[in-house]
Specification:
The chain has 4 helices and 3 strands; from the N terminus they run αβββααα. The chain has 2 domains: 1-55, no CATH class; 68-97. The chain is α/β, with parallel strands linked by helices and 97 residues long. It has a 3-stranded parallel β-sheet with strand order 1-2-3, with helices on one face.
């Protein structure tokens, strides 16, 4: 029992989103498992944490998409620029008399 929080050890938000219990990256802070250059968790930068991360589908998929982050950003940047140009063109166009 954790006396600092009156026996409540886990925040409700942490239980709703499983991703917050695990951390992976250059600076990883999590409650249970973390792997990274600087890691803070109950199991940090050890074999248990590494195996747990490899077993998680979220971190496997994230690792596969990491090299393509630039191209994934284009998926929302390009439509945003097109919409901005269309709106700017409509505002500068003179109404026909």
């Amino acid at each position: 029992m954790d006396t600092r929080t009156g026996g409540v050890r886990h925040l409700v938000v942490w239980r709703l989103c499983d991703c917050l219990e695990r951390g992976l990256g250059g600076y990883a802070v999590a409650q249970d498992f973390a792997v990274g250059g600087i890691a803070r968790a109950l199991q940090a930068n050890n074999d248990i944490a590494a195996r747990f991360m490899k077993a998680s589908a979220f971190f496997r998929i994230s690792g596969m998409t990491l090299p393509y982050l630039f191209w994934l950003n284009l998926a929302w940047v390009i439509p945003l620029v097109i919409q901005w140009r269309v709106i700017a063109h409509k505002r500068t166009r003179k109404p026909a008399n």
